[in-house]
């Protein structure tokens, strides 16, 4: 089994994160999967962005939950990364899904539900309803730092795959695995390096694996996957170490 290469917010190291150019570049770089994050706008639209606020990655200010889709679409999500991407817009979940369908993507789509800081009311139902009404050719994987979101989505869409995100404390992940809600862990690579020999036999996809040293560590131990800002580099290293 090859270690799957999952592009963190798209090809985040080479394109404006969580934008359509970043996701397209990840596919062109040979990524097996796409990892991204979903929030809820003021008018109940599913918005793709990592932070709860728009300040870091766009030319706007404020929280996503306080802005409408129309207001979010006025923001520039590319110029801060590089002026060449000026005019790049904040995408919706549907726009990302349609891009992947257009590109005939059949890999992993890892959607993180961003409810660990703001508990968006009803976001799990909206996400589940979306995918229950849209046939997609790729494998849907849900993850979250907030265990209740995983449990809610599991009840709504039990056929999907679920994995637990964590940085250091993994008690919730351990419980959800024991209850057969999740099948794998998505831990911080620094935590993995300290603890992986003590872990139960679970599917591991560490984040954020950006150095050659950490990539080689994951490939050497044939983890299920790795989540990286540089899928192109990871793909080249995997060819050398795993042959595919």
CATH topology: TIM Barrel
Task: Tell me how many strands there are.
Answer: 9
Radius of gyration: 17 Å
How much strand?
15-25%
- Please give the largest β-sheet: 9 strands, mixed
State the separation between the terminal residues, measured CA to CA: 10 Å
Query: How many domains would you count in the coordinates?
Result: 1
Q: From the structure provided, what is the oligomeric state, counting identical versus distinct chains?
A: single chain
- Helix share bin: 25-40%
- Which class do the helix and strand fractions yield? alpha/beta
Domain GP-PDE: 3-238
Protein name: Glycerophosphodiester phosphodiesterase
GO molecular function: phosphoric diester hydrolase activity
Plain-language structure description:
- Residues 3-238 form the GP-PDE domain.
- This is Glycerophosphodiester phosphodiesterase.
- GO terms for molecular function: phosphoric diester hydrolase activity.
- It comes from Lactiplantibacillus fabifermentans DSM 21115.
- With 244 residues, this protein is an alpha/beta fold.
- It has a single domain (4-241), classed as Alpha-Beta Barrel (TIM Barrel), CATH 3.20.20.190.
- The protein has helices at 20-28, 69-72, 93-102, 123-132, 147-156, 171-178, 189-195, 212-220, 231-241; strands spanning 4-8, 33-40, 46-48, 108-113, 139-144, 161-166, 184-187, 203-204, 225-228.
- Strands 1, 2, 3, 4, 5, 6, 7, 8 and 9 form a nine-stranded mixed β-sheet that branches.
- Helix 4 (123-132) links the parallel strand 4 (108-113) and strand 5.
- Helix 8 (212-220) packs across helix 9.
- The mean pLDDT is 95.
């Amino acid at each position: 089994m090859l270690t799957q290469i999952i592009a963190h917010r798209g090809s985040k190291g080479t394109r404006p994160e969580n934008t359509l150019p970043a996701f397209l570049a990840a596919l062109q770089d040979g990524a097996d999967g796409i990892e991204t994050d979903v929030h809820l706008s003021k008018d109940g639209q599913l918005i793709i962005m990592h932070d709860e606020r728009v300040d870091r990655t766009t030319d706007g200010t404020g929280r996503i939950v306080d802005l409408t889709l129309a207001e979010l679409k006025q923001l520039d999500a590319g110029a801060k990364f590089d002026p060449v991407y000026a005019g790049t817009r904040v995408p919706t979940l549907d726009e990302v899904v349609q891009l992947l369908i257009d590109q005939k993507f059949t890999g992993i789509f890892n959607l993180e539900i961003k409810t660990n800081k703001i508990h968006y009311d009803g976001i799990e139902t909206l996400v589940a309803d979306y995918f229950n009404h849209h046939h997609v050719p790729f494998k849907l994987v849900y993850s979250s730092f907030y265990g209740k979101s995983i449990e809610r989505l599991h009840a709504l869409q039990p056929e999907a795959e679920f994995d637990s995100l964590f940085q250091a404390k993994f008690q919730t992940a351990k419980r959800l695995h024991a209850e057969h809600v999740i099948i794998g862990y998505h831990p911080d690579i620094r935590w993995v390096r300290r603890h992986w020999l003590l872990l139960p036999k679970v599917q591991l996809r560490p984040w954020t694996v950006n150095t050659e040293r950490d990539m080689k560590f994951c490939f050497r131990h044939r983890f299920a996957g790795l989540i990286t800002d540089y899928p192109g580099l990871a793909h080249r290293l995997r060819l050398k170490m795993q042959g595919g």
